[in-house]
Amino acid sequence: DAGVIQSPRHEVTEMGQEVTLRCKPISGHNSLFWYRQTMMRGLELLIYFNNNVPIDDSGMPEDRFSAKMPNASFSTLKIQPSEPRDSAVYFCASNFGARGGEQFFGPGTRLTVL
Amino acid sequence: RKEVEQDPGPFNVPEGATVAFNCTYSNSASQSFFWYRQDCRKEPKLLMSVYSSGNEDGRFTAQLNRASQYISLLIRDSKLSDSATYLCVVNRNTGRRALTFGSGTRLQVQP
Predict the structure, then answer these.
(1) Are the beta carbons of B99 and A45 separated by less than 8 Å?
(2) How far apart, in Å, do the first and last CA atoms of chain B sit?
């Protein structure tokens, strides 16, 4: 039974480049969450979707970040242009129903912006 | 002030020891509480939910004190495999926000 799938697992890019992170939630889940984790700030919620609709994007750092969920099985997080301070591990998580229920995390994308 | 605060540790304990972590939360409207475990360079995974009356799962006991707004996790008979970071998580169950994660407490169990 596949869990949350994220790609790529590692991404190294240069400042100013566009970065696109991808996530496939667990089949049947209707909520999807994007998090960013750094040593300094811990795990931060960036945005979450319910039934493909963005519900709370107050954690998105700035206009350089955007997220989409075109259908129930796919979401993207895009950073354009990327900056060195965006270097972090980006996790996608999903669950069914309640906001506060157990969330199942993907393995994460480790992003390094040079 | 952070919404969820934890002592970052590390807690270095010998095998077989009992260790306890505390976590405080600032929003009295918080309704749901969890402990997640995160191994080095891995994703967080749910360890256990925390219920008002306290709950136990094997060697792990979680307690909630709403009056003082803190949550605790007790691990008995520590194993090497318990070495990880333990994240305290709260949810208000109101408004638009989802789960809020603490920064985690690192545990290192030594042989």
Answers:
(1) yes
(2) 37
Q: Chain A contacts of B85, Cβ < 8 Å?
A: none
SS3 state of residue A59: coil
Cβ pair B91:A56 closer than 8 A: no
Q: Are B15 and B80 in contact (CB under 8 A)?
A: yes
Q: Tokens representing A17? A: 């480049």
pLDDT, one tens digit per residue, over A36-66 is 999 888 899 999 999 999 988 888 988 999 9
Mutate to test the interface with A, among B34, B40, B43 (most CBs of A within 10 A): B43
Residues found in chain A = 114
State the DSSP code for A25.
Answer: P
Q: Is the CB of residue B33 less than 8 Å from the CB of residue B6?
A: no
Among residues A79, A64, A29, A28, which one has the least CA distance to residue A49? A29
Task: Give the pair of three-digit tokens for residue A60.
Answer: 């998105």
Per-residue tokens: B24: 């405080």
Residues in chain B: 111
Residues A92, A34 contacting (CB under 8 angstroms): yes
Strands (DSSP E) found in A14-106: 19-24, 31-38, 42-50, 53-56, 65-71, 74-79, 88-95, 104-105
pLDDT, tens only, B59-88: 999 999 999 999 999 999 999 999 999 999
Encoding tokens for residue B96?
């638009």
Residue B87 Cα distances to A9, A58, B96, angstroms: 23, 22, 21
Bridge partners of B92? Answer: none
